[in-house]
Every structure is written in C-alpha cells, then in structure tokens.
Amino acid sequence: MKFIQNQLLKKESLANVKELLEGKWLKDSSKLPLLFEQVIKPHNRVCLEGDNQKQAVFLAKGLCKVNPQIVNSLHIVQSCLSLPEHVEIFERGIASKVDFCYSSGQGARVMNLAAEGKIEMKGIHTYLELFSRYFLDLTPNVALLVAEKADRAGNLYTGANTEETPAIAEATAFKDGIVIVEVNEIVDELPRVDIPASWVDVLVHSPTPQLVKPLFTRDPAKIDEVKILMAMMAIKGIYAKYGVNRLNHGIGYATSAIELLLPTYAESLGLKGKICQYMVINPCPTLIPAIESGFIKTICSPGGEVGMNEYVRAHSDIFFNGSDGSQRSNRAFAQLAGLYAIDMFVGGSLQIDLMGNSSTATIERMTGFGGAPNLGSDINARRHSSDTWLKAGAEYAETQDKSLLKGRKLVVQMVETFQAAGQPTFVEELDALTLQKKMKMPFPPIMIFGDDVTHIVTEIGIANLLLCKDLAEREQAIRAVAGYTPVGLAKDPQKVARLHKRGAIQYPEDLGIRFSDATRDLLAAKSIKDLVEISGGLYNPPSMYRDW
Description:
Layout lengths: L4 H12 L4 E2 L2 E2 L5 H8 L5 E4 L5 E2 L1 H8 L9 E4 L6 H8 L3 E6 L6 H9 L4 E5 L2 H8 L7 E9 L5 E2 L7 H9 L4 E9 L15 E4 L5 E2 L12 H18 L3 E4 L3 H16 L9 E3 L7 H5 L5 E3 L8 H5 L17 H11 L2 E4 L3 E2 L5 E2 L12 H4 L11 H13 L10 E5 L16 H9 L15 E3 L4 E3 L6 H10 L5 H4 L3 H10 L2 E2 L21 H7 L14
Parallel strand pairs: 3-5, 3-8, 5-6, 6-7, 8-10, 10-11, 13-14, 13-16, 14-15, 16-19, 19-20
Antiparallel strand pairs: 1-2, 4-12, 8-9, 17-18, 20-21, 21-22
Helix pairs in contact: 3-4, 8-9, 16-18
C-alpha cells in the first residue's frame, strides 16, 4: 500500500493545468474558472481566504463561475464568510458544507440557507479551533489565498494584514494540498518574504486591488456621554482596582471611549505605568493618543487597520514590524496571546441572560464567534501568575469559601442596557436557544459562557460576579445593572441592596463618579481629524471618515 496518494493527486492536478501556466503564473486571468475546474474535485475541502479584514475577492468571484456539474459538494473551511460570493457558492450548489468562525454581514443569508438545507453547518468555531483543525481533520485540499505582492519566483509579501495566511498556507502545502494565491502587485524584489515560493503552486495576478475593510475604526465624534460614563466606571472600578496591564479590547465605542480616556481621566488617577501597557489588539486609531502619551508599551496585532500602516511603521517600539518597517500581524499567535497571556478581556454582546451567558446570534442572523470565546475564557491550562490574575482568583475563592488554587482571568462584558434599535440587551432567555432548536444544532451558539464572565458594566453600574456566592446572587447582580429592561425591572430590591452593601454591585457614586463629570471634554480626541493631528499626519483615514 502506498502512502503518497495526496502527493500523486497533486502532481496529476497540476499537470492538467500546465498549459494554462507560465511557470507558476496563470497566463490569462479570464481562465481562472477553467483552472479551478481542473484542480478542485467534488467534495474537496477548500479554504477560500476570508479573513477578519482581507478577502481573496478575485478568487472568490472566479470560484462562483465554475460549472456546478464539474465542481460541486465542496466542504468550505474558512474563518469568515464576509463576501456575497462566500454565500453564492452554496446557492449555486458548488459548496454544500461549511466549518467557519464568523459570518459578518452575511449572517442572515447563511442562516436562511442553512434552514433551507442548502448549507450543512458542520461546526461554528473560534479562530484557534479552526486553525488547529487545519492541521488535523480539516486540512484543506485546496487553499485560495491573497497576498499584497509577489516576486516572479512566487515568494509572497502579505504586509500588515498577514492575519491567518501563513497558518492556512502551511497546513495545505505540507499535506500536499494545492495553494493558489491572488496577488495585487508583481515586483522584482519584495520588502520581505512572508511566505516562501516553495509553499505556493499557482499565482494569479488580480486586476482588482486587495479588499481590506476598516473594521476597527471608531469615530470619536460618535462617543456619547453614556459611553464615557461607562468607561470611567470601568477604569476606576476594574482597571485600577486589579492593576490590569495585559489585556484585549473588543470592537466597540465603549472600549474606544476607554482608550481615549487613558491620557486624560486615567492619567489624572495616577494610572499611567500601572494599567494598559500590553495589549492584544489591532492598531485601532483610537489608541493613538494613549500611544503618544506613553501609556502603551507593546501591541500584538491579529491584523492591520486601514490608514494606520505609516503610523505603525513609525512606532516599531510598540508594534511587531519587519526589517522593512511594515507590520507583521498574525492572527493565530495573537489569539494564543489572548488565550494565555492576557489578564483581562473587555467585550460586548447583543444579548446577555440571567447567568451572564452572552451571544451575538439572534433570531434574524447567525454571526458566529470569531475570537471572542478564546479571548474571553478563563483558561484552566494557564500556569504562570500575575498580580491581576491572583487578585481576581483570591476574590472569587474568598466568596466561594475555598482555598486559592489558581487565579482568574477578568472577563468583562461592557454593554448598554438597550441596543441601538431599542431591543433590550438583557433577556430571560437567549435567542441562541431558539436557534439551536431551529437549526438542529447540538448545543446553542453561545459566545461567552457565564461561568467565565467576572464583571458586567452598564450605564447603571458594575456587577462584580466574582463576589456572588451562588447562581441566585448572580442573577440579582445582573438584574441590578439591567436598568429599565424587563430583566432589570424584575429585580428583588432587598437582595440587590445586600449585594450592593457587599460590593458585588457598584454604582457611579460608589466610585466617586458624578454623571455631570462624564463629558466629551474628557476624550483625548473628539474626532477623526483630531486623531490625524495627534498622529502627526501619519494616520491616513479612509475617505468615508473624512469630513474636512
């Protein structure tokens, strides 16, 4: 029995397209669908690179044009379903199964197709789960990737938005899969080599530029007084209390408000050099004032951000940059840092139930998880300690009346009691449970389990779940900060009063914060234009954010 079948199949497939290629380069980009029909077989596992930010758009459009009689029943294994084409391949019968992490703006279409039986959801993963399975049971037979530049030999430069390209390429190339890469620019000499030519089988010169979305840009002009109040409470009631120095911020205006309050409010509390020095986060523009004021020492980035490349280049002490000066992001390593190295995760959610379970899946759409479950989990495999981790663990151990065996990661959900559309954030039961039944899933699509959540911050106050002795107390602490939602109105005033006395619930006045103090004057930058000026002109925001 020969154990080189994958190797033989790869050689046969590449031999079939030899006439379409000049070296490794596709001679005529219009022949891309024909290339796919020769190298992609029915039932193959295919990773069509859809990262958190960058997308292999040209390859995605080409895959949609193949003949479904020739290429069909594909098993898609990719992190993000972001483009319309990512869903169209299921509508056309080219693909039938999917293992993914996040569906972004395609969430409603994905859910509808799954309900119609046109998509078989094999699994909704965290990023690290899916990347890990690339090296076990979900290794792609074909990977369709994207790079910013390539030289004639096929070496790749992926630039600031390297993200997960290396993980996909390595898993595929070293298991005799076929790696096809769309490239924006062909050059004689690369700034640096991010992926060697030996990992690449076919290159396609894309006539359209690489699509990268500004997912992590938040306009300070949209940060209102409510978010500033919440940021003040978080800084004084959590960041300062536990001395949080290693952390991740999720995407949102509340966390952006915290970032913009670091050089003003946090510094006025004497917290510079004591909090927020090491972060796992994309180069968010709202971090510029904190970086310039000397708050932040190191940023480990899962990806890049549109308009921030030159700023990052000029701050190599902060970011991980190559010898050419440009950023080298890596989603897999950043997610590992978020899982093991940080002491606190701060994120948001669309729904939170009475136990603190949270989900972004609603009856209308299935978005998936991305990296939040990794970042927002209290990992039992951690063996190194920190003051923050031990302090949170001691607080929990004392409440539960047991000896301190380990610390705790702080997992903070920061939400307003009502969403922008007027829907309550706090619910008796998550929509995720309804979706589980509707989609016949083995368990509900919960993003972060309540067992891992330590604090919930709303405009009402902070619920410290570490200080809750049992599930009944946890429920009342959550109801106490749920405001005028039906969940909040059903709280037991006497039980809430006892929790407040113990410190499990803190209101702004308990922290010495007045509502009148929460003004936009505290923001280190009040507009995108301010961020540009503070950056010394290095930040170049997309046109959609320019109003001058």
